[in-house]
Structures are given as structure tokens and as C-alpha cells.
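Q: What would this complex look like in 3D?
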Amino acid sequence: MSTQTPDSSSNYLGINVSGASLLAALVSPEGQVVARGEAAFSNGDLPAQITSLVAELRADAASPVVALGIGVPGLVNPETGRVVVSNDLPSVVRADLQTELARTTNLPITLVNDANAAAYGEYIAGAGRGSRNMFYVTLGTGIGGALIMDGKLWYGDSGFAGEFGHITIDREGIECTCGNTGCLETVASAPNIVRRTHERLIRDSTSSLTRLGLNKNFTAADIAHAANEGDDFAMLMIERTGRYIGTAIAAVINLLNIQRIVLGGGVMDAGKLILDPIIREAGRRSFQPCFEATQIVAATLGPDAVPTGAAMLARDAMRT
Amino acid sequence: MSTQTPDSSSNYLGINVSGASLLAALVSPEGQVVARGEAAFSNGDLPAQITSLVAELRADAASPVVALGIGVPGLVNPETGRVVVSNDLPSVVRADLQTELARTTNLPITLVNDANAAAYGEYIAGAGRGSRNMFYVTLGTGIGGALIMDGKLWYGDSGFAGEFGHITIDREGIECTCGNTGCLETVASAPNIVRRTHERLIRDSTSSLTRLGLNKNFTAADIAHAANEGDDFAMLMIERTGRYIGTAIAAVINLLNIQRIVLGGGVMDAGKLILDPIIREAGRRSFQPCFEATQIVAATLGPDAVPTGAAMLARDAMRT
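A: Here is my prediction, written as C-alpha cells for the whole assembly.
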């Protein structure tokens, strides 16, 4: 399909179509980002928007681009290359993105779930470097995960492995969008951190958060910011969130005895204030010899994670 | 080390040293048990006892025995072949069992954790047959697990993968022997089923269990028996136990999206009365597309599971 054969000067393109805009990265065979691109993500013709972004980055590239990886917010059937389920981006499901992009770009196309792409990006070039077995968690509007075993993404039997957000951490907890009650996501996703904080503010009308001048429409990022400014109540909310996450992390550690756990996503912008209670609670709730073998670290690639991982999976697809 | 080269008529020996007695099985290369042996397990010279049991089975064997696998209740370091940790059988830790048995039997020796051996036995010849990815759970005095990914045991980074019993299912639960609170083991192991039942009996002095004539020293097996005889209260205790187990099973399903989950151990003697609520609760608490891809079944090999798995791992060790 591609007219190019990969060599050491070849580059790979990765694009994240999960966010508010299309983020692209031109990536070296070793996983280093050599150029970035961005395009507004309108609700129009997604293949045309991607094609135009690809053309732009190829025009500027010093060496040939040999494959394109696309991170999408949904499940990808590895055999057909089609997006099977996507709550966040239903239009992708309808489009046969792979065939269409292969035609317009003349590149081999690899579609991949965004959490899997981010995990692989961190594994190759970020906080997962040097490990062989890694669990990746993304903590944002939703909570997802992905598993790398012996250097390879573990997709599971139907492509859904790593559903970290739906681990039950409170059997008596509130209902989740998935139908279960007490999933991690019901307390630790960004919207649920906001919800829990609102509930506490109603209970405690003289909260320090209002002293900090936050308006009624504050976000999880605002809470993290207030916590980092030293607000006691915000710190408490972040600390409790970390303990919930740590409880679920302990299940991963116990089941997999895994070398490294990498935590990414917007909720991790709280930094040490959330990482420390995660590690503490995971330590308290893990079988000790498993915990001692695990490094729990923050992701380092930020918005480059998905494009990097998607590009590297496109690279791998050419090698097989 | 062995003077025999394996061929299609070779057999493999497996011995379980985890129980009250030593259980041995002579196993075909395909995993079929062709003969069994048993010896009292005194606290004396374990290598001598194993050696004598091996000699007995070899004397009766129609075809040559080419390797010996031993299932032990502890962690085995795959590199040294030594038992690293065993709460249940400390004398094994001190003995260099592998070297000693290699000398006395002139067979290649493979030591393996008993839960891993049982998992592999079920995978090759029991309820796991036909799967590639399988999680095994043993529910008895303790609760353990083992993971088979792509046909191979997944030991984890330090050999401790599958610590299913120490998954937190109740953050406010009672203290576990491991130091955590609310581990699955604190409510669903055989002694804890008895403890919970005693607590309910104290609360409810006219319980039907006493009508069934159980004395004060009843066991988990007695409760399962009473449940199968139709005792409402015993059925309730078994059903709740199943729901606790199902909660932890859901975490496995969500993380691994695994094809098959095999449940063994004495607690599973309650049969359908415990399997049904496990499946129901796992279904309620799993991400549905993951759950739909998973078969949850009872183990079928009973006491043959550990010797069969140990023998098959000894077989595999000769092939590498």
C-alpha cells in the first residue's frame, strides 16, 4: 500500500482523534517526537480533516513518513480495523476510517483505542521505559486502563482488557453509567471529584473552597489547583480520591504482580498530592511481596502519549 | 540428568505436597492420569518420603517416567528452583528439595506453586481445556489464584501473580492476616464462612442450622451440605459468599477480559448454590462486553489438578 519501505530514517505519524482537537505527532522509529501538528476538530468530515493534517506534516517532514496510526476513543476490532464501540465519538463507528484514510494518504493505517495508544506511547518513550510489564491508567472524564505484558499490548479476548474504571471499590456505592454500583469511576473521575466536592460544600457551607473564591462551576482542575495552593479542604478531596484509586491499583498489583504502573490523564495534574495517597493506599491494600515489586509513577508524555503510541503501533504493524 | 529421552510413550509424574498427605499421579504426555499414588505425610524427611512414593509408581508404570513435577504450598523462585516463601510448609523452604530429589530419583525436577500447578492441570486436562487465556481460583482454607495468558502461566514480575484472595472487596471490612482490611479472604475462605455463620447464629438463636442438628464445631463443608439439603439459612450464607467472590471475579474480568475463569477448592463443593451467585454478581459488576466474553465454570479435576499440572510443567521444562 505504501510506496515506502521503512528504514532508520523513516518516520511514523500518530494522530489522536479523542480530544477537542486533532493532535498529530511525527515520531522517529525510536519513539521520539520530531514534529507536532494540530487541527480543529469539527463535526464534519473526519477522514478529510485527518487527510489534510497528514499532508501538512508530511510536507514539512525531512524524511519519509511510512505509516499512520490513529488513536480513537472506542474499541477497535483488531481483525477488521474498524471501530466497534465508541460512546464518545459515534461518527467514527459509522465511517470505515481505515479504508478511507489508506486511500487518501496512501499509507498503511493502524487504528487503536486511545488508552491502548497512550499506554504504548508511555511504554516506548515515557514513564514506562525500561519496563517489560506495565499497567497504564488514564484518569480524566472517564477512567480507563491498558495492559502491556512482556512488551506487548494485551487486548484481552474481545479487545476490552484494562477496564480499570469499572472495578468495584464500594459495594454499596452509587450507580455507574455502566449499570454497576460503586465503580471507581463513580468517585474518582474528574466529574465525580467535582460532584463529591459539591456534596461536601452543601454539607459544610463555610468551606474554604468558597474562601478561595471558586465559583459554582469549578472543575476538577480548579480543585487540584486549590489543593496545590494549600487549601485544606481541596487537599482532603484530592487525598480521598487518591485513596479510592489506590484501592483499585492494589487489585492490579495483586492479580498481575506487575513491574510498573503508569498514571496519566488530567486528574494526575494534582501531582504529588494525588500520587502519594495512591501509592500509600495501594501499599496498604496489596500483598506486600507484590507491592514491593511495583513502581507506581506519573505519566510523562502528556498530550504526546496517544500520537506517539499510535505511531509506534503503526511501526510495529509494518514489522509483522 | 535423566537417562530417558521423552517420546510418545513417556509418562510424567506429579506430586502434591500441599495437603494432609502426598498425592501422586502418573500422567500421559496429553495430561491423562494413568495411575495414582498416595503416602502419609509425616513431619519427617520429606525428600525421602517423596523418593519412596516415586519409586513405587515407577515400579508399576508400563512406560518410562521421564520427569517429576512437585506442587508446593509456597512461592518458587523459577531461577533457583527453590521454595522462597511458604507459610504452610516451612520445612520445604529449608530443604533444597530440587537438588536432593534429582539425586535420589535421577529425574529432572520441576517445583511449582500449588495454585499454579492446579491452574495448569485444569488448563491442560480439566475445565480450562480449549481456552488460551484462563484465570484459576482456589477457594479453600485460603484463597489463591493463577493466571494463564496465551497458553502459559503468568508468574508476574516476582512470581506472585494471582493473589486473588487479597483483593479488597470491603474497604471497611475486618483485618486480614496480610495486614490489609476487607480482603476477599476475610469473608469467603472456608474458616471465614464458618466465622460469619457463627456470628449470625449468635445473633439469631433459633437458626435453622441448629435444627439440622449441626454441632458447634461445624465446618464450611457442613454448611454447604446443609444448604444442599435445603436449609434456608445455610443457603443464604452460601449465596452471600458467592456474591463476595463474584465481586472480586468482576475485577479479574474487567482487567483481563479473559476467556475462562475456573473455580476450584473445597468451598466449590457447594456446587451450583455457590456458582450461580458468583456468576450473577460477576455479571452485575463487570463491564458487559468483558463479561459476555467470559465463561465462569467449576474446576473438574479435584485432587488430580495439582499432580497433573505439576507433571505437565515438568513435561514443558524438558521441551525448552
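A: To summarize the key features: Chain B touches chain A through 46 residues (CB under 8 Å). The domain at 11-121+303-319 of chain B is CATH 3.30.420.40 (Nucleotidyltransferase; domain 5).
Q: Very helpful, thank you.
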